[in-house]
Recover the amino acids of this structure.
């Protein structure tokens, strides 16, 4: 068995992880852009949607994932649908 075949699962896991990181960054950038377009600070918006400010900061920077409940609150706070956040 060669190296590639013996590590194929590791490579696909890494590929999926990298894709996930890119998705988190795109989602975070979309949230930040929409929030800023509405003139909302992170602090004000986090209070408005009931998300800890540091968690919102991590979501916007792509360092943290957002569960569906948080995405729903963020979308509601921005006056959009969740699908509008994830169309990238």
């Amino acid at each position: 068995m060669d190296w590639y075949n013996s590590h194929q699962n590791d490579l696909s896991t890494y590929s999926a992880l990298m894709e996930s990181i890119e998705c988190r960054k795109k989602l975070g950038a979309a949230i930040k852009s929409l929030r800023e377009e509405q003139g909302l600070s992170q602090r004000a918006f986090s209070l408005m949607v009931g998300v800890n400010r540091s968690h919102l900061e991590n979501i916007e920077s792509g360092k943290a994932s957002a569960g569906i409940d948080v995405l729903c609150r963020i979308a509601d706070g921005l006056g959009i649908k969740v699908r509008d956040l994830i169309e990238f």
Remarks:
- The CA atoms of residues 34 and 78 lie 7 Å apart.
- DSSP finds five helices and no strands in the chain.
